[in-house]
Design a protein that fits this description.
- This protein is α/β, with parallel strands linked by helices.
- Among the domains are: 7-86, Arc Repressor Mutant, subunit A (Orthogonal Bundle), CATH 1.10.10.10; 94-153 and 270-285, D-Maltodextrin-Binding Protein, domain 2, CATH 3.40.190.10.
- It contains 10 helices and 11 strands.
- It has helices spanning 7-19, 22-29, 33-47, 63-86, 101-118, 171-177, 192-206, 223-231, 241-250, 279-298; strands spanning 52-55, 58-61, 94-99, 123-128, 143-147, 156-169, 184-187, 217-220, 236-240, 254-256, 262-271.
- Strands 3, 4, 5, 6, 7, 8, 9, 10 and 11 form a 9-stranded mixed beta sheet that branches.
- α1 crosses α2 (22-29), α1 crosses α3 (33-47) and α1 (7-19) packs across α4.
- It is elongated, with a radius of gyration of 24 Å.
- The protein starts with 6 loop residues before the first helix and ends in an 18-residue tail after the last helix.
Length: 316
């Protein structure tokens, strides 16, 4: 049945496609780049089409190559998992999740206790960093939770948590803001203009074009720092409904003019095609999907929030 399958060529193809380099694939497989090239050419003859486009810094999958990679990667992952399950002590009970420092600190970590309670057999390692992880090339990361308006057609999108933006502060600061110009807390993203544009969009939606002239302004590099500053009474902050959800529930932050909301984008859980079938990843994504659904039910925006758009993109 499988006598004519070019197994070696398929394994070579999977490594080259995932690493986007014949040289890196050769190093992983302990063969020469020439051997990798020969295997890829043989596979292309076997399927009757080109699988890679050669580019200056490596190779790029063609459309048919991407289709083959999705199938081969998932199939080899299934085989690896089956072999691991046959061992007396399986070694695949761990997964690595990549996201930003702010999302980890303000949303994910406070909820992870429920995942550990539901799935104590799995060990989760959190990789919090600002840089985007290439899930097709970096096999050490199982799942990435990214915030972006972009689509990722080459990846498996498991679940999504949308957000909207509003202005929040400590309850005492929110009460004062109705009587005088408040101090503001701001976040300096990599593109700081995006945060300023968000404030402008909120002020426009609120009908307060001149309100963005605070008596003082405090800037922080990370969103979780800015929210802690707002909780401490340093001023009002423009913040994501996702990031402030726990603080609002605890009463340490309150919305200022809650009827005014600026649409944001969404957090999406992504993995390489086929990786979603890996038992720890499957369990984590199922748990995350329920948490995302609960988050949506707990912080649905009102209709007034559709007056302006934040228009930013933060990639994880």
């Amino acid at each position: 049945m499988f006598a004519t399958l070019p197994v070696t060529a398929l394994r070579t193809f999977e490594a080259a496609a995932r690493l986007r380099s014949f040289k890196l694939a050769a190093a992983e497989l302990s063969v020469t780049p020439t051997a990798v090239s020969h295997q890829i050419k043989a596979l292309e003859r076997h399927v009757g089409c080109a699988l890679f486009d050669r580019v200056p810094r490596g190779v790029r999958l063609t459309d048919k190559g991407a289709r083959l990679f999705a199938g081969v990667h998932g199939a080899l992952l299934d085989v690896a998992q089956t072999l691991d399950a046959l061992r007396p002590e399986p070694v695949s009970g761990a997964l690595t999740v990549s996201t930003t420092h702010s999302f980890a600190a303000l949303w994910l970590v406070p909820r992870l206790g429920r995942f550990h309670q539901a799935c104590p057999q799995y060990q989760l390692r959190l990789d919090a960093a600002a840089d985007t992880v290439d899930l097709l090339q970096d096999a050490s990361v199982d799942v990435a939770i990214r915030y972006s308006s972009q689509r990722y057609p080459a990846l498996h999108a498991a679940c999504t948590l949308p957000e909207w933006f509003g202005v929040y502060g400590a309850p005492a600061q929110v009460a004062l803001a109705g009587r005088r110009a408040p101090a503001l807390v701001t976040v300096r993203w990599r593109d700081s203009d995006l945060y300023d544009q968000g404030w402008q969009a909120w002020c426009q939606a609120a009908g307060l074009p001149a309100w963005r002239r605070p008596v003082s302004e405090h800037a922080y590099e990370e969103e979780h720092y800015a929210l802690q500053a707002a909780i401490a009474g340093q001023g009002l902050v423009l913040a994501s409904s996702v990031m402030v959800s726990d603080s609002v529930a605890a009463g340490t932050l309150a919305p200022y003019r809650p009827q005014v909301q600026v649409p944001g984008s969404a957090y999406t859980a992504l993995c390489a095609p086929g990786r979603e079938r890996h038992p720890p990843v499957r369990a984590f994504l199922a748990w995350l999907r329920k948490e995302f659904q609960a988050g949506q039910r707990g912080s649905l925006p009102g209709s007034a929030g559709r007056q302006a758009s934040l228009g930013k993109t933060r990639q994880l």
